[in-house]
Known about the structure:
This protein is an alpha/beta fold. It contains 5 helices and 9 strands.
Amino acid sequence: xxxxxxKDLIRSIPDYPKPGIIFRDxxxxxxxxxxxxxxxxxxxEPFQSxxxxxxxxxxxxxxxxxxxxxxxxxxxxxxxxKKGKLPWKTIGQEYTLEYGVDVIEIHEDALAPGQRILIVxxxxxxxxxxxxxxxxxRRSGGEIVGATFIIDLPDLGGLKLLNSHGIPCxxxxxxxxx
Length: 178
Ligand code: AMP
């Protein structure tokens, strides 16, 4: 059987967007028909047998993956966007970046209380973004069933942070270091 190596489909770009960071570029995987299909299937797999009411994807790469995963799980999709991008009334959540703070938002009516939500993004590093997403969804009454990523950077501790909030996590690939 031919087994596709997802890790080989990810392009690593040293010193982007700044010195010392290795940017893990998933556009090379997204552009590979078999790679994309395998990634979507594996990201969705642990949640296939659970009731999921909506996938919440984090801008921007979480939209591409999240839409496909929602289709596979037979549920809706909620976009989690950077501040100021959504057209209707929003609720926001601040989170800390290396320098300063940022804000993510959802529409105030994006989900109904009690809905079971799966968070999707391409990569988890410190976990700050996904943690903010979980807080935002919980403030709207959502129940977080889990979070799924292509890539984990385990040295930065993001999965452990989400686990500490009671969120089961799934990642397909790990890269050591930053
Ligand atoms: P964090 O909040 O630290 O977990 O960062 C996760 C978010 O930042 C995700 O939306 C990623 O797409 C992006 N990100 C962080 N570090 C990297 C990296 N080394 N390569 C590519 N994307 C990254």
